[in-house]
Design brief:
seven-stranded mixed sheet, about 35% helix, alpha/beta, about 240 residues
């Protein structure tokens, strides 16, 4: 994946990322309480980049230093960025503890499906303890309709540990602790720019593995790109 994220950093500048990002947090920005914003498993977070000129404290958490370096470089490249408000922390959540802060917004974008549902429920308990009344939690996860989900495959949950329903998310962020203020289930095909990036990533990865036969490369790309229907659930919860 390091090859993919390096290509993403090169091919997708900040302005393009922000133009194409579906970010419902914008609708509730005026309702955010005082406190820091944290993105757990941030990658090159479009959500944090959307807050690039805020006076709030921004905390970017990721287990991959390369992603934190790419994100830092993106922030530094923006004229209106307030880099002094940002912290970039390499951390293996939830094994490592999060900074003890008061949070206005906690972001889980494309990370919870790397945990089992039981593990996610434990993560929800951590979030409950580190949040206060009014803290918002963004959760973006792969749904059970995601193209890679095949319950008949014994290896179905080797990579993505769980595919979600909204009922699953409400077990993670239960109604006695959180109110759900936003919910959307999205199904889409990848736009061409992202398909181009994926094909380039496959070519570079195969090259790194010493695979150079053009026919084999084209077959692998064709098989990988077939029937890629992205299906995701996006929700925002607010601590009661």
């Amino acid at each position: 994946m390091k090859i993919y994220w390096k290509l993403y950093y090169t091919d997708f500048p900040v302005d393009k990322i922000l133009r194409q990002t579906h970010n419902p947090i914008r609708e509730y920005e005026d309702e955010l309480i005082e406190g820091a914003i944290i993105d757990i498993g941030c990658g090159q977070s479009s959500f944090l980049l959307d807050f690039i000129n805020t006076d709030r404290e921004i905390i970017a958490i990721d287990s991959e230093q390369i992603q934190l370096d790419f994100l830092r470089n993106r922030v530094k490249s923006q004229k209106n960025a307030k880099l002094e408000n940002w912290t970039f922390q390499r951390s293996n959540f939830p094994v490592d503890k999060l900074p003890e802060k008061e949070y206005s917004l906690i972001i889980f974008s494309n990370i919870l499906h790397f945990f089992t549902l039981d593990e996610c429920i434990e993560i929800g308990k951590i979030v409950t303890k580190m949040s206060k009344k009014g803290t918002m939690v963004y959760a973006g996860v792969h749904s059970h309709k995601f193209y890679a989900n095949d319950p008949k495959d014994p290896k179905n949950n080797d990579y993505f540990k769980h595919y979600f329903s909204i009922e699953d998310l409400e077990k993670v962020f239960p109604e006695n602790e959180f109110e759900r203020i936003y919910y959307a289930e999205i199904e889409k095909s990848d736009p061409q720019k992202e398909r181009d990036l994926t094909e380039k990533w496959i070519e570079k990865s195969l090259e790194a593995d010493g695979i150079i036969d053009p026919r084999r490369i084209e077959l692998i790309k064709k098989n990988y790109m077939t029937n890629k229907c992205q299906s995701d659930i996006i929700s925002i919860f607010r601590k009661k």
